[in-house]
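Hypothesis: this fold can be encoded by more than one sequence.
Test: take the structure tokens below, design a sequence, compare later.
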């Protein structure tokens, strides 16, 4: 069985956004990840550590469309270029997939994601994709959360977690660290 890992940047009040702002961030503080905070290199080591464990990437449609315009030619993301990619979307067409960015498969439902997890292979990392992450969490499909939590309260933006009344999931803290600029690294396993 494959692990599904969500990785993201999150404000203390649970908002997840792309690091530099962009389409889909319908609040006035978009781009908050790189604003108003001292750069501390060690706070970003989680991203480098993830490379060793990543065997595939998963995105929602909007995140795929955003990342596919920058990551294929980014030196910072060169190790991701040839990895298999999965896009969970009921609307994305095959002809909208980006050429030259590794094999990409469209999954049409959370049931398709569950079937993928049942197969052979290593960890699949979900970057960004807040709407997808909520659906996957609600369906009990996320196995691990890798979060960099920033010392900011935004009040608006996409939440990583839904607010539906459901069975609780207990999390086990695997790893934590804090940095002088106030960022917290939190790595949780979902207990089943």
């Amino acid at each position: 069985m494959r692990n599904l890992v969500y990785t993201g940047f999150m404000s203390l009040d649970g908002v997840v956004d792309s690091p530099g702002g962009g389409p889909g961030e319908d609040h006035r503080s978009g781009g908050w990840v790189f604003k108003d905070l001292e750069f501390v290199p060690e706070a970003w080591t989680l991203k480098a550590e993830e490379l060793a464990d990543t065997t595939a990437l998963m995105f929602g449609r909007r995140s795929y469309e955003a990342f596919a315009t920058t990551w294929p030619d980014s030196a910072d993301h060169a190790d991701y270029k040839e990895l298999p990619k999965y896009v969970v979307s009921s609307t994305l067409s095959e002809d909208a997939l980006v050429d030259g960015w590794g094999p990409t498969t469209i999954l049409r439902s959370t049931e398709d994601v569950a079937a993928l997890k049942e197969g052979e292979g290593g960890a699949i990392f979900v970057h960004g994709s807040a709407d997808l992450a909520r659906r996957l969490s609600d369906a009990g499909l996320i196995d691990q959360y890798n979060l960099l939590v920033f010392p900011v309260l935004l009040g608006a933006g996409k939440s990583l977690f839904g607010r539906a009344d459901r069975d609780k999931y207990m999390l086990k803290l695997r790893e934590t660290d804090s940095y002088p600029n106030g960022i917290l690294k939190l790595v949780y396993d979902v207990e089943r």
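DSSP finds four helices and eight strands in the chain. The radius of gyration is 16 Å.
Hypothesis status: open.
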